[in-house]
Amino acid sequence: MSENVQHPALDDTVLVRSHEHSQRYLQSLATRHVGTKRGRDSMMAALEEPLSSLGEDPAQVIDLIAEQVEIGMTDCSSPRYFGFVIGGAHPVALAADWLVSTWDQNAGIHAISPFSAAVEEVAAGWLLDLFGLPTDASVGFVTGGQMANFTCLAAARHHVLRAAGWDVELDGLAGAPRVTVVVSEAAHVTIHVALRYLGFGTRSLVQVAADDQGRMSADDLRKALAAVSGPTIICAQAGNVNSGAFDPLREISEIATAAGAWLHVDGAFGLWATASKELAPLVDGIENADSWSTDAHKWLNVPYDSGVAIVRHAADHRAAMSASAAYLIQTSGAERDAIDWVPELSRRARAIPIYATIRSLGRQGIDDLVTRGCARARQMAAALQGDSGVTLLNEIVLNQALLRFDGSDEVTRRVIAGVQNEGTCWVSGTTWQGRAAMRISVTNWATTERDIALSATAVLKVLGAVRGRRGDVNDA
Ligand SMILES: *Cc1c(COP(=O)(O)O)cnc(C)c1O
């Protein structure tokens, strides 16, 4: 390549600007008001324009986006963002992610990027090591927990039907032996959606009861299985999205083995408990499952979108996912074609931030990240329970706390709305066992004890104000 060939993109003004915007934003995160400042109308007014015919100055476009995004979003990366289960991006993960976009590799096939393929291979091995899963399990890097559940359950569908003498990839589901799919009543909605994508309608599932923490009842599972025969898939959970609870995985795995059923574990954030020495008892037996799904964009704190599908039986995983076409240059040797393990064809090299983060944090760093989040969740619950009107609704086994205020749905909802408005921290709400609850999830590497103390003080202040207003109403 001649040295004096100039790439037209080398006018890097917009790149410098976007780096400056990023730096400024990240540096302000610890002190920002956490919460959305504007809604749809304001955002549309700022963003909507007739489609430009001649285009606009790229730097101005980038400036406009940077200015509006900061008032039109909740700062999910804030160390005091406790909504849903959302991890903030670790700096090393973010840095790697920038490079992923810079290189713009299509990580679908080895022929395009031996680098990305090798990164996937190494990152897959490290993940299996961290999670204590079989070293020969196969791994697909997908967009998130939803597609990880889909991928794993597609492998499950292939496996159980193949064992019944049916090739579902060639012959489809019509006329196939009936597959029984067992889910817990506390299963995450993405399990239902994944099963729907796979032709298992929601009403066709066998539902098993869950206890007051959201853990699948092993006894109920046993009873349900006694009534079925033939191809069977069981969906268990590590980390309930509200309570953080784990299904009794050892017992469930023994029941699954005895029934000859495929056991899938949705561990979108809970699978990371396997990386923490302190949390090991929670995940006892998890290694006996047939497939596991998890998110790296949750607890490993890599940017969206990053999920992981892991399957014990690589051949079934590949049979359910692989694609081939005459124009693709696919390998037949040891090289990895990512498309064999995921639903997508073209895709970004999303294993690179995973590789960078694991390599940089190491086993200890990841253990610490996970264990620390749980300690901070307990700290928050304890600080709030200093007020006698605050009740903790779940056993905090992981990083999730469910809190209720003055035994009232109304007070609880008002406190949640008040906290979202106040801006010190951000929490979301849920309904737990029929009662309104504030849901706190600590999933960010950057959350300090001081962040928790500040947040607890803010929540209690909002609670005081809600009580004051109710007092006024009652007096009137
Ligand atoms: C978040 C979550 C999912 C879905 O993951 P996405 O990455 O949002 O698709 C599935 N299951 C559980 C238990 C979760 O917490």
For the sheet with most strands, the description reads: 7 strands, mixed
**CATH T-level topology of the domain at 96-357:** Aspartate Aminotransferase, domain 2
Mean pLDDT: 94
Q: Percent of residues in beta strands? A: 5-15%
Approximately how much helix is present in the residues? 40-55%
Structural class: alpha/beta
Question: How many runs of DSSP E, i.e. beta strands?
Answer: 11
Low-confidence runs (pLDDT<50, min 5 residues)?
none
Based on the model shown, name its key terms.
11 strands, alpha/beta, 7-stranded mixed sheet, 12% strand, globular, 4-stranded antiparallel sheet, 14 helices
Short description:
With 476 residues, this protein is α/β, with parallel strands linked by helices. The chain has a domain at 96-357: Aspartate Aminotransferase, domain 2. The chain has helices at residues 13-28, 40-47, 58-71, 91-103, 114-131, 145-163, 168-171, 189-197, 218-226, 249-259, 314-321, 351-384, 409-422, 449-475, and strands at residues 138-142, 180-184, 206-208, 232-237, 262-266, 291-295, 307-311, 390-392, 400-405, 428-432, 435-441.
In words, what does this structure look like?
The protein has 476 residues and is α/β, with parallel strands linked by helices. It has a domain at 96-357: Aspartate Aminotransferase, domain 2 (3-Layer(aba) Sandwich). Helix content is 43%, strand content 12%. The protein is built from 14 helices and eleven strands. A seven-stranded mixed β-sheet has the order 1-7-6-5-4-2-3, with helices on both faces. Helix 5 (114-131) runs parallel beside helix 12. The mean pLDDT is 94. Pyridoxal-5'-phosphate (PLP) binds next to helix 6.
